[in-house]
C-alpha cells in the first residue's frame, strides 16, 4: 500500500509539472493590463505563432465579450456557415468558425497578430488606427489586412438617476470597460476631448451594471452595436437611464459619427416617443496577412468565399439587425483588402457599381413619399433580385 501511495505521489508530481509547462507554453503574450495599452511608446513587434493547426478546417474568430453585439455576430457566422456544408471523408465539417472571446479592443488585434489559431477579428477602425499611428505593436500595416467594413458601434452611457447630463460626471466614478477595450481607450479619448475629467474604473459589463445598481458608480460606458442584448437586463426598477453624448463636430468628426438610440432599440429604458443622441465608431473585419499560398491563407480564402456567397442569409430571419448595415463592397481607406475578398467582389457582376445600379432600378418603382422601413425595403430588393437575376 505504501509503495502504491509513493508511486501515485511521483505520478502526480510529474503530471502536475507537465500541466504547468503546457500552460506556460500556451500562455498569451501579455494580459491587457500588462502590455496592450495604446500609448506613444513602442511596445515592440509581437511575433505570430506559426505552429501547424490541429484543425486545418477551423477559422479562429476573435470578437468581444459574450455580452456584446460583436460576439453575437461572430456566433451568427459560426452557426450559419456550419449549416448546409458537405462533410469530409472522415465526417469532419468542411469549414468551422470558432468564436474567441476578446475585449473588443486591443486584445482582439494582439491575438490576431500573435496566436496561430486566430485568423480574423472584429475591431473598431479608430482603435486599430491608433495602434498603427503609435506603433504600439510595431508597423502593423503589412501584417493586418481587412475583409470588409462592418457596422457602427454605438456609445451606450448608462447613468444613475441623479446624473442628468454629461458635464455632471466631472469628478465622478465612471466605468469605461475592461482595460484595453474600445470603451476604455476611445471613451477616455472622447471624454478628454469634451473636457470631462472623471475617476475611471475598468470593470466588465456585469460588474459595472452591479456597481451602478449599488451606487458605487455614477455611470458606465458600453461600446457595442445597438441593440445590445445584455442591456435588456436593465430594469425600470433600477432607475438607470441612457445619458446623451452630444456630437461636437469640431471635436469628434475625424473618427466619430452621430447616432441615436430609440425606443425600439431599448424599450426597457427609452420611452415610446423619446430618443437619446449619442456617438458611434465604425468597425471592420480585420485578418492576419498570412503568406499567399500557405495553409492558413487558403483557409481564410475559403472562409471569405463562403461568407460572401452566403451573406444574404444574414439579412433575414433572426440574425442581428446590425447585419443590415454591412456593405461588403465598401472600402476602408488607408488599408489593403484581403486579396481573395477583393477578387470575389470584382467577379460579382462588376461589384458595387452593378449592385448600386440594380438597386436604383428597384427604387424607381417605389413611391417617393413615406418610404418603408430600411429593413423591409432591403428584403423587397432581395426578393426582386431573385425574380430578376439578369437585371
Identify the notable features of this structure and list them briefly.
391 residues; alpha/beta; D-Maltodextrin-Binding Protein, domain 2; 3 domains; ten-stranded mixed beta sheet; globular; TRAP_TAXI
Account of the protein in words:
The chain is α/β, with parallel strands linked by helices and 391 residues long. It folds into three domains: 32-148 and 286-347, D-Maltodextrin-Binding Protein, domain 2 (3-Layer(aba) Sandwich); 152-283, D-Maltodextrin-Binding Protein, domain 2 (3-Layer(aba) Sandwich); 352-387, no CATH class. 36% of the residues lie in helices and 17% in strands. It contains twelve helices and ten strands. The chain has helices at 2-26, 32-35, 69-82, 106-114, 125-134, 182-193, 205-214, 249-252, 295-309, 339-347, 352-364, 374-387; strands at 58-63, 96-101, 120-124, 144-159, 173-175, 199-201, 219-224, 241-242, 257-262, 275-288. Strands 1, 2, 3, 4, 5, 6, 7, 8, 9 and 10 form a ten-stranded mixed beta sheet that branches. The radius of gyration is 23 Å and the shape is globular. The termini are far apart. Residues 1-41 have low confidence and may be disordered.
Order of helices and strands: HHEHEHEHEEHEHEEHEEHHHH
Shape: globular
Tell me which CATH architecture of the largest domain applies here. Answer: 3-Layer(aba) Sandwich
CATH topology (fold) name of the largest domain: D-Maltodextrin-Binding Protein, domain 2
Radius of gyration: 23 Å
Please report the distance between the alpha carbons of the first and last residues: 83 Å
Helix % is: 25-40%
- The number of strands is 10
Estimated structural class:
alpha/beta
- DSSP strand (E) fraction? 15-25%
Biased composition (Basic and acidic residues): 40-52
Region (Disordered): 26-56
Pfam families: NMT1_3
Protein name: C4-dicarboxylate ABC transporter substrate-binding protein
Amino acid at each position: 500500500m505504501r509503495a502504491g501511495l509513493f508511486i501515485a505521489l511521483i505520478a502526480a508530481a510529474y503530471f502536475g509539472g507537465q500541466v504547468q509547462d503546457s500552460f506556460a507554453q500556451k500562455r498569451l503574450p501579455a494580459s491587457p493590463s500588462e502590455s496592450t495599452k495604446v500609448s506613444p511608446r513602442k511596445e515592440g513587434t509581437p511575433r505570430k505563432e506559426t505552429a501547424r493547426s490541429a484543425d486545418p478546417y477551423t477559422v479562429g474568430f476573435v470578437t468581444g465579450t459574450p455580452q456584446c453585439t460583436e460576439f453575437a455576430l461572430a456566433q451568427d457566422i459560426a452557426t450559419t456557415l456550419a449549416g448546409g456544408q458537405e462533410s469530409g471523408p472522415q465526417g469532419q465539417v468542411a469549414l468551422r468558425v470558432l468564436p474567441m472571446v476578446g475585449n473588443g479592443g486591443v486584445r482582439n488585434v494582439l491575438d490576431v497578430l500573435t496566436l496561430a489559431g486566430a485568423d480574423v477579428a472584429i475591431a473598431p477602425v479608430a482603435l486599430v488606427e491608433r495602434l498603427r499611428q503609435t506603433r504600439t505593436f510595431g508597423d502593423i500595416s503589412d501584417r493586418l489586412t481587412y475583409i470588409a467594413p462592418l457596422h457602427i458601434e454605438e456609445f451606450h452611457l448608462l447613468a444613475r438617476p441623479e446624473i442628468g447630463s454629461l458635464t455632471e460626471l466631472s469628478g465622478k466614478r465612471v466605468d469605461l470597460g475592461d482595460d484595453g477595450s474600445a470603451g476604455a481607450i476611445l471613451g477616455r479619448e472622447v471624454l478628454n476631448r469634451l473636457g470631462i475629467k472623471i475617476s475611471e474604473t475598468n470593470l466588465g459589463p456585469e460588474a459595472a451594471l452591479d456597481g451602478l445598481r449599488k451606487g458605487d458608480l455614477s455611470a458606465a460606458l458600453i461600446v457595442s452595436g445597438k441593440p445590445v442584448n445584455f442591456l435588456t437586463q436593465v430594469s425600470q426598477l433600477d432607475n438607470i437611464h441612457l445619458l446623451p453624448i452630444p456630437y461636437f463636430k469640431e471635436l469628434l468628426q475625424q473618427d466619430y459619427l452621430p447616432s441615436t438610440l430609440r425606443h425600439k432599440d431599448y424599450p426597457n429604458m427609452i420611452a415610446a416617443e423619446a430618443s437619446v443622441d449619442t456617438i458611434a465608431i465604425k468597425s471592420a473585419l480585420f485578418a492576419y496577412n498570412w503568406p499567399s499560398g500557405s495553409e492558413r491563407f487558403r483557409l481564410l480564402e475559403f472562409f471569405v468565399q463562403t461568407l460572401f456567397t452566403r451573406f444574404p442569409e444574414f439579412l433575414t430571419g433572426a440574425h442581428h439587425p446590425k447585419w443590415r448595415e454591412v456593405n461588403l463592397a465598401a472600402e476602408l481607406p488607408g488599408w489593403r483588402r484581403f486579396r481573395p475578398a477583393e477578387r470575389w467582389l470584382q467577379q460579382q457582376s462588376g461589384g458595387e457599381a452593378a449592385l448600386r445600379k440594380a438597386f436604383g432600378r428597384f427604387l424607381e418603382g417605389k413611391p417617393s413619399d413615406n418610404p418603408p422601413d430600411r429593413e423591409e425595403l432591403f428584403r423587397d430588393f432581395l426578393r426582386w433580385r431573385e425574380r430578376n437575376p439578369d437585371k
